[in-house]
Structures are given as C-alpha cells and as structure tokens.
Design goal:
Length: 125
Amino acid sequence: MHEAAIAQSIVRTVLQEAEKQGAIRIESIEVEVGELTFLGIDQVKFWVETRFQGTIADGAELIFKNVKAEIRCSDCEYEGHLSVKEDAAYHINLPSFACPRCKSTRIEITQGKEAFIRQIKILKK
C-alpha cells in the first residue's frame, strides 16, 4: 500500500516545513499527483488526515490536483496527452504505454508520473 507511505512523506514534509517557518497553524496543503502514479487519492487523503490529527495541521484543507499524463514520441514526434484507462490491476502491474498516433513504444513520459507538494498555507504568530 504505497498510499500510506506517500501520505506519511507528505505529513512529515509539511510539518517540518511549517516548523521551519514558525507556523502556529497549517490552513491548507495543495498536492499535485500525476495520473501515472496510480495513487488512490481518497486513500492518500484519509492517511494524511489521520496522521495530521493532534498536530497544527489538524483540520487543514487538503487540495489534491490531478496531473494528466503527457508524452513525447521519438518516432513520430507526437507531443500530448496519453490516455490512461483506470484499472485496479495497475496497482500490481504497470501497463506498457504506446504513442496514440503511431503506436510506437519509444516514448518519453514528460508529465504525469510526479507527486509533490505545491503549496502549504500557514498561519504565523
């Protein structure tokens, strides 16, 4: 269950950064999650909220934004969206991707495999 590990990392990073900034309260956290991470956002949100209980982030607004997958094809030079069908099996075995135009598998994923904290809104003394 990599959702719990990702959530733990988010919580640790947010609380450490808030402490560095002298925060007395964390009001909101914005996280961008690429669709190729195949993370269950509801699960991540649950684990983050659970781990924030009793901290200065308890009750903070959690904003998760989905980042669509994009590719660049080495063969036909297509650049654009990669259509990803939601499938629970992707949590076990990753699919192989191909260019939607020429079906080549010589592609570079340029967006959609990242997960990062975009913004932390804090309240200082």
